[in-house]
Design brief:
- The chain is mainly α and about 160 residues long.
- It has six helices and no strands.
- The chain has helices at about 5-35, 45-50, 60-90, 95-120, 125-130, 145-155.
- The longest helix has 30 residues, at about 5-35.
- The radius of gyration is 18 Å and the shape is elongated.
- It starts with a helix and ends with a helix.
């Protein structure tokens, strides 16, 4: 029996779960926790203009931390499910590597195109929570992390 279809489908599904976890973490950090320490990966132009914020509503930071922890749990859970499924299906080292490489690459594509291109450059996501960023956020920031990403991958 051919097992490739379900393996590929599960791998893509787990990558989507990782993407959902990443989005929850971003939403929690930007929209609810709003701590400048969580913006260390943002472009320098954005980091410089961000001002400290008060809670949007009582319990916003607690809800934000809960969502952030849930996002991390989604990512860890997807990795564990991928590993357990591979063990149960007697994956070779090459299949494990391929599964996790595909999951990581899909998550990176999501990061670059959704977070950078859509949310950072072409939407009102960040300015909604931080109006002072409206003048510094735009298409010129697309791919701001290309150089640092390449350096980390090659190191």
């Amino acid at each position: 029996m051919n097992q490739r279809g379900p393996v590929v489908l599960l791998t893509v599904l787990l990558a989507v779960v990782i993407m959902a976890g990443m989005f929850l973490m971003l939403l929690a950090g930007v929209g609810l926790i709003q701590d400048k320490k969580l913006f260390t990966s943002a472009p320098k132009e954005v980091q410089e203009v961000i001002q400290p914020r008060k809670q949007q509503f009582p319990g916003a930071r607690a809800l934000g931390w809960a969502l952030l922890i849930f996002g991390v749990a989604l990512i860890i859970g997807a990795i564990l499910i991928g590993a357990v499924d591979g063990i149960e299906n007697h994956f070779s080292l090459q299949l494990f590597f391929a599964r996790f490489l595909v999951m990581a690459l899909l998550a990176k594509v999501f990061d670059v195109f959704f977070f950078d291109w859509v949310l950072l450059c072409h939407s009102n996501f960040y300015p909604h929570f931080y109006p002072e960023t409206k003048d510094v956020i735009g298409p010129q920031l697309f791919g701001f992390n290309k150089k640092s990403t390449l350096c980390r991958r090659l190191a």
